[in-house]
Amino acid sequence: MKNRILLILFSVVLLYACSPKSTEQVSAITSDSLDRSVLPIKEPVYPAITELDARNATAPKRFEVKAPAKAPNVVIVLIDDIGYGHSSAFGGPINMPTLERLASRGLKYNRFHTTALCSPTRTAILTGYNHHSNNAGAIMELATAFPGNTGVRPQSITPIAQVLRLNGYSTAAFGKYHETPPWEGSVSGPYDRWPTGSGFDKFYGFIGGETNQWHPLVYDGVTRAYPNVEDPNYHFTNDMTDQALAWMNTQQSLTPDKPFYMYYAPGATHAPHHAPKEYSDKYKGKFSQGWDKLREETLERQKKLGVVPQNTKLAPKPEAIKDWDKLTPDEKRLFERQMEIFAGFAEHTDAQVGRLVDALEARGELDNTLFFYVVGDNGSSAEGGMIGMFNENTYFNGVQETLDMQLSKMDKLGTDETYNHFAAGWAVAGNTPFTWTKQVASNFGGTRNGMVVHWPDGIKAQAEVRSQFHHVIDVAPTIYECVGVPAPKMVYGIEQRPIEGVSMKYSFENAQAADVRKTQYFEMAGNRAIYHDGWFAGTIHKAPWEAKPRHALTEDVWELYNVNEDYSQSNNLAAKNPEKLDELKKLFMQEAVKYNVLPIDDRTIERFDAVIAGRPDLMNGRTKLVLYEGAKGIAENAFINVKNTSVKYTAEVEVPANASGVMICQGGDFGGWSFYMQNGKPVYTYNWVGLELYTITGAEKVAPGKHTIVLDFVYDGGRGGAGTATLYVDGKKTGEGRIAKTNSNTFGIDESADVGIDENTPVYAGYKDKSKFTGKISKVTVETFPVKK
Questions:
Q1: What's the pTM?
Q2: For residues 689 and 767, is the Cβ–Cβ distance under 8 A?
Q3: Do 482 and 435 meet the contact criterion of CB atoms below 8 Å apart?
């Protein structure tokens, strides 16, 4: 009897525990009670239901993670390669009305800093951790084997996108995403460090450091997309904006109560400077005063706007930059046009950001969107050298263009017939009032960029300037504080490093608030510096236009500035205060050890070669690659390296009469090679950095049927050297010629290797739109050989 009573009591307790009331209690977890420091947020475990009939039971409420109440949308706009003194909002000559519009109801930050280069700044802003902590000591294509430079974001760092997505946000990225290791940029993956593997639900853009704005290599998620580039009005910035608006409008229609995070990063204003003509033509004649006078005019405007202190002096320009009044008429004519195109490029980009802002306003979401408009991922770029270039690929291959070359292409600058960059003098002018440029992490000209924060629902102050010292790593913690979520301690079971940025929210309503960031290191290819409590020490190890470092790392000459009093770094105090300089140099080394900055690698372009750099290579030392029809869109860093070596291409094909089209190619308009058929004959064309074409054509037509067609290139040696190319059909020699010059480092950052077609821009313009192979390809073998001595 006693046991029966105990059994009844146990059954009652069990039924109560498993009743609908109990499941409602378990599932009634408010968003405010969630532990958001551990991600993903663990779903509750419901007790088993004992009711047989579903009609008599109540299902528990669905567990769903929602963003904190009233959490704002978040938008980060990051412009590429534009200087502190370029935009009209920060005193520059380029009209950027959208930036000014947001600043009129927001805050301008005039002591905001980047890392001096693309990928490093982007990893920092997207995570809240220093670039070396992200293993992004340089751009991804220059990754090495050393910690701090491997190109692989560690598992202990989780991007903002993933944090917000796991906290109930929709997430999307559009435009440039330069954070994927180059050997992971193929269909073989992994896709963990692609945008959609880094927390973004949606991605539309390009993976490399730059793209042809008229003929971009674009991905939708991880799949190659083919926008209608034949549309005469096509431009990538317009295209990515269309995609961003479509995504945002649809997301808001379907889930209007769900906040979103958008990362909007145009390829502009990075080279190539591809601008719609109607924008560039707005600036005709507006730069005839030259870069020296422009610097003076810009500083005066900056003072009037209050974005620099009134006592700011114009820092001297680098000695290598010629005085404008000493240039020849031809130089002035060319350089003026270069700057007109750049200005049009920047204004056009701002106009596209304006479309995004207008759409947010139309949806009623603008005021509750935390909007960061970051005007540059580094200072303006001097990588165009002293005279600029019509094809930036020459720079990456160590080839110097001449003035006559550029003058012959001047009318084509900004169009799809050029891949242009401007002269370094304009970069220095664009970084007014500072001395240096992109790459120079040891001077504010390379690292100080204007930023506007706009959030009327969260910031009462409007049209004000904030002068607290901050860095791109401070954007993430600012977002977390404004949204109401912590930087996670654990993500997918991986313990996270303490976040390295600090929130800027304290400065929103208090212009006089003391700086929270007291210390920040800077380093890029040996150019290095340290900021601490108003003092700045740095060394110019190498200028962007210099082929070699100025000194050994141990012999670099350091400079010292009191930047609380000397905004433009125009008064070097190293000789007057050597004790302070020594103190800061020691502090730099402490920070360098802390954040994996060491060892410093001051090599630059040669690191494009994976073997030299010591990073992984998808080919892993293979000297033979067999490809089949349909293999296309293969990024250069995922393809076998055929530069600076002997190589044989063997195509096993079946051809009709008068066969035509590409069997295999790599590169495009501005550098590459193609092995193809034309009017029934085999042809090999080598396009040397868009400057010279070398073509070898077979003597006879190939009869219909199956054949083995070979191009054998015997390399003379060295880097970028010559060689002899020989054509064979079924073992019989049918053509031979010399290739006098070859690309030493790259065929093109936004081009690919293709079998059976030439995608993107054509290596050889003669087969444009007719590059598809008319026969059948069984396979193509690419085999490299050591250079014979």
A1: 0.94
A2: no
A3: no
State residue 655's pLDDT score: 98
* Dist. CA 699–CA 726, nearest whole Å: 12
How far apart, in whole angstroms, are the C-alpha atoms of residue 52 and residue 33? 33
Helix (H) or strand (E) holding 104: helix 97-104
Give the number of other Cβ atoms within 10 Å of residue 717's Cβ: 13
Backbone phi, then psi, for 413, in 5-degree steps? Answer: -60, 135
Contact indicator for 763, 687 with CB cutoff of 8 Å: yes
pLDDT in tens, 184-206: 999 999 999 999 999 999 999 99
φ/ψ of 355, rounded to 5, equals -65, -40
CA nearest 602: which of 524, 530, 719?
524
**What is the number of residues in the chain?**
789
Task: In whole angstroms, give the CA distance from residue 683 to residue 129.
Answer: 51
Give the closest residue to 357 by CA, choosing from 67, 70, 77. Answer: 77
Strand partners, 94: 87
DSSP state of 402: P
Q: Pick the closest to residue 193 from 134, 113, 274, 234 (CA basis).
A: 134
Give the C-alpha separation, 295 to 299, whole Å: 6
Neighbours of 25 (CB within 10 A): 11
The identity of residue 215, as a single letter, is: H
Read off the tokens for 260: 């979103």
Assign 3-class secondary structure to 147-204. CCCCCCCCCCCCCHHHHHHCCCCEEEEEEECCCCCHHHCCCCCCCCCCHHHCCCCEEE
Q: What is the DSSP string of 538-607?
A: EE----TT-SS-SS-GGGPPEEEEETTT-TT-----TTT-HHHHHHHHHHHHHHHHHTT-PSP----GGG
Taking Cα atoms as reference points, which of 353, 354, 352, 346 lies closest to residue 426?
346
Does residue 18 register a pLDDT over 60?
no
Token pair 């998808």 in the structure block, residue: 618
CA 208 to CA 119: how far, in whole Å?
9
Nearest in space to 396 (alpha carbons), one of 557, 310, 271, 553: 271
Closest CA to 535 of 513, 512, 556, 565: 565
Q: What share of the chain is helix, strand, coil (3-state, %, to 5)?
A: 30, 20, 50
**pLDDT digits over 407-439, tens only?**
999 999 999 999 999 999 999 999 999 999 999
CB neighbours of residue 456 within 10 Å: 14
Tell me if 374 sits within 8 A of 125, measured CB to CB: yes
Residue 253 CA to its chain's centroid (Å):
30
- Cβ-contact 520, 423 below 8 angstroms: no
Q: HEC states along 79-91?
A: CCCCCCCCEHHHC
Nearest Cα neighbor of 272 from 350, 208, 214 is 214
> 152 Cβ partners below 8 Å, 6+ apart?
135, 143, 181, 193
**What is the share, in percent, of the chain residues with pLDDT greater than 70?**
96
CB atoms within 10 A of CB 491: 19
Q: Which residue has the tokens 């993976």?
A: 207
DSSP code for 224? E
pLDDT digits (tens, 9 = 90+) for 142-188: 999 999 999 999 999 999 999 999 999 999 999 999 999 999 999 99
Pair 186, 632: CB distance under 8 Å: no
Contact 224/204 with Cβ under 8 angstroms? no
d(CA 577, CA 582): 9
Distance between CA atoms of residues 704 and 694, nearest Å: 27
β pairing state of 107-109 and 464-466: parallel
Phi, psi at 485, each rounded to 5°: -125, 150
Strands (E), 669-731: 671-678, 681-688, 692-697, 705-715, 723-729
| Edge-to-edge strand list for the sheet holding 527-532 | 519-524, 527-532, 535-539, 558-562
**DSSP β-ladder status, 692-697 and 681-688:** antiparallel
